[in-house]
Amino acid sequence: MTIIDFLKDFILVMVYDSFITLTIVLLILSVFRIRDSNIRIMFLFLPLIKPFLIVLEDFKLNINFFNSRSSVLGFRFPSPNTIFHRIDSANDSFLFYSNIDTIILAIVFLCILAILLVRWSYLFLFYKRLAYEEKVTEADIPDIYKILKYSAGRLNVKTPQINLTYRNYFSPFVVGIKKPTIVISPVLLDILTYEEKEILLSHELAHIRRHDNLISWLSLIFKDLLFFNPFAYIAYHLIKFEQEKGCDNLILKFSGISPKIIATGVLNIILKIKTINKKSDKKYLFIQSSGFVSFQKINLRFLKLKINNILYSNPDKNFIKKPLKIFCILIFILLLAIQFVIVVKIGGNSFIFLR
Question: Fewest CB within 10 angstroms: 191, 231, 246, 272, which?
Fold first, then answer.
């Protein structure tokens, strides 16, 4: 395999598939007006997952079909024989090649994989250290635990532990999946009102109820593996935005706090975080898990959408019923399997095969 073949048959194909899939997903979400954040996130994972399934197929097994045509346009379901042929054909593996292009590709691939493993390990250890920096009990901060227990009861979530961090990470976030911990700065707690603390803790509890930590890790891993793919970044940020909307919808439905108070509280929390961050000696490190920082880092348009969602959305319409969920899952499986194919013959037995 040459470097050009690799770019043409793998990189270009994966970028194309993410683009087509993301376009179709956004069209479906818009046309059918799907508001349930969990369903929207499920569909938005398609541009991150599907490229890896597509490149398993060995399109060269279809060479006789394409030889008689200069171009092909349409859709199809991939044949299992072609998907598993690539796996079964060990003799075709790059391990058995000795040309310079294959050696270069193998070295680059292994270096990228090593860098990503180091990145993921660093993030995991970083969050783990923060989770054990200073665990506090109800006896240490009874007022905070009182709010936490009340909000957890309203959201039907088991009360998590709280960890205080004295580093320059002022936006709270959740660490852990099985035993989640809320990491929060005492500097922030000191300047928040009672209502703002309730909104802040309710937001983090909503993340726990939705299992957003697991979703965030999965989306981050897929996005990092597709680091060359701009549409993977778009899908990733849309997933993060939907996570925030989903938390807001849960708070609107179960917290008992009015939308106006929630919207005002969110804005005040963001402004206060920005204020203490500016006073800090060190630059603020962006925490992926935090919803209150992400909107500062993207742009005001997303913040406006977030506030409008809180003020004007109907919480009862943001959660679809079970029969519709089953239907959406079936559509998801269909889109995962189907290929939207464009094949262009570029001379001889050479093709650009996008699927």
Answer: 191
User: Are residues 242 and 139 located together in one domain of the fold?
Assistant: yes
- Longest Cα–Cα distance of the chain, Å, equals 78
What CA–CA distance (Å, rounded) separates 38 from 95? 41
Tell me which residue range forms the domain holding 262: 133-314
What are the tens digits of pLDDT across the range 185-240?
899 999 999 999 999 999 999 999 999 999 999 999 999 999 999 999 999 999 99
Considering the domain boundaries, does residue 86 fall inside one? no
**208 burial level (CB within 10 Å; 0-12, 13-18, 19+):** buried
Q: Are residues 233 and 164 in the same domain?
A: yes
What angle is formed at CA 116 by the lines to CA 165 and CA 237, rounded to 5 degrees? 70
3-state secondary structure of 339: strand
The one-letter amino acid at 201: L
Rounded Cα distance, 24 and 20, in Å: 6
Overall pTM surpassing 0.90 (yes/no): no
Amino acid at 339: Q
Q: Is the domain of 141 the same as that of 207?
A: yes
Number of folded domains in the chain?
2
Q: Which two tokens stand for residue 187?
A: 């500097």
Strands 161-164 vs 181-184: parallel, antiparallel or unpaired? parallel
Residues 138 and 181 in one domain: yes
Q: What span, in angstroms and rounded, lies between the C-alpha atoms of 7 and 304?
A: 39
Residue labelled with tokens 């292994």: 110
Q: What is the DSSP letter of 68?
A: T
Same domain (yes/no): 180, 307: yes
